[in-house]
């Protein structure tokens, strides 16, 4: 059986690939680190590292062991952390973010319900700019947020879908499509599409702002904007058209633009996101609260339409 400090030494060296650096981080001597690794290799019966005067590398067996041990150690650390949190209850602060007004309303309602359940934990709700969808999560300013899918980020957990919204095309009031009761994706052929700029991933842009119609006709790119109000201003001044959730007309309606429903565009899924490395019992408790209150919120919103 390996001791905890032996596993820690092995995994840290597997990441550092430098005996001196690992020794400094563990506050040990280099010889102590070397002795520990040699001891583990004797138990295994084969080398875990290749050592030369210039470099240290994992052997294939060492890589296999590191890949297997890493998730186990992470799960153990999470279990210990969760037990400690459970012992003292859900406390501290929680930052939650939204990128649309309707998601903000849901999070505000969820924050109230969460505080009633966990009065020792304060919840702060703040807006996420569409041009930087994951910046708050990565900077540590936010613990959870509701964003639009798809999301495919290695460091961010994609939680459950909270709700889906049909799409509309936003056009200038003077545009020929503004007179239509509905539009099709094929209507976008050769119509400039105003998109988001900034840190939005390419896969998300291509999903929400397609480059071709289903029939293969090109959809030209118009200007990009970091802020939603800037997107609408580009549309209003004739720089192009853009996609939006149909619900957005109730929050962003203006006299110089028109929201025209799509007949064939896929719905926009909105779901919960959080940093994988910072998932806690507090995070999971808030996610559960959002799921508990969402249907009451969505039913209430439908009644206001």
Automatic annotation (TrEMBL):
Assigned keywords, A-Z: DNA-binding, Transcription, Transcription regulation
SUPFAM superfamilies cross-referenced by the UniProt entry: Periplasmic binding protein-like II (SSF53850), Winged helix' DNA-binding domain (SSF46785)
GO cellular component: protein-DNA complex
Molecular function terms from GO: DNA binding; DNA-binding transcription factor activity
A Pfam short name: HTH_1
Domain HTH lysR-type: start-end pairs: 1-59
Family membership noted in the UniProt record: Belongs to the LysR transcriptional regulatory family.
Entry protein name: LysR family transcriptional regulator
């Amino acid at each position: 059986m390996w001791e905890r400090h032996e596993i820690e030494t092995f995994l840290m060296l597997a990441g550092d690939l430098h005996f001196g650096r690992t020794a400094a981080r563990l506050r040990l001597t280099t010889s102590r680190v070397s002795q520990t690794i040699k001891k583990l290799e004797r138990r295994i019966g084969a080398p875990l590292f290749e050592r030369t005067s210039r470099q240290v590398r994992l052997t294939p067996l060492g890589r296999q062991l590191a890949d297997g041990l890493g998730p186990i150690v992470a799960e153990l650390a999470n279990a210990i952390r969760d037990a400690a949190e459970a012992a003292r209850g859900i406390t501290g602060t929680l930052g939650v973010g939204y990128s649309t007004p309707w998601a903000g309303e849901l999070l505000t309602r969820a924050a109230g319900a969460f505080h009633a359940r966990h009065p020792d934990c304060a919840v702060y709700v703040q807006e996420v700019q569409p041009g930087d969808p994951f910046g708050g999560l990565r900077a540590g300013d936010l613990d959870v947020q509701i964003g639009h899918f798809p999301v495919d980020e290695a460091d961010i957990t994609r939680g459950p879908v909270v709700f889906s919204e049909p799409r509309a095309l936003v056009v200038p009031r003077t545009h020929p499509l503004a007179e239509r009761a509905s539009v099709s994706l094929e209507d976008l052929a050769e119509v400039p599409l105003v998109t988001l700029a900034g840190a939005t991933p390419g896969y998300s842009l291509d999903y929400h702002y397609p480059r071709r119609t289903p029939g293969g006709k090109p959809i030209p790119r118009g200007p990009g904007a970091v802020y939603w109000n800037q997107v609408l201003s580009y549309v209003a001044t004739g720089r192009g058209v853009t996609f939006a959730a149909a619900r957005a007309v109730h929050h962003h309606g203006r006299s110089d633009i028109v929201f025209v429903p799509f007949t064939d565009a896929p719905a926009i899924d909105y779901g919960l996101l959080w940093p994988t490395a910072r998932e806690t019992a507090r995070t999971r408790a808030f996610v559960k609260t959002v799921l508990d209150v969402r249907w009451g919120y969505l039913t209430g919103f439908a009644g206001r339409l």
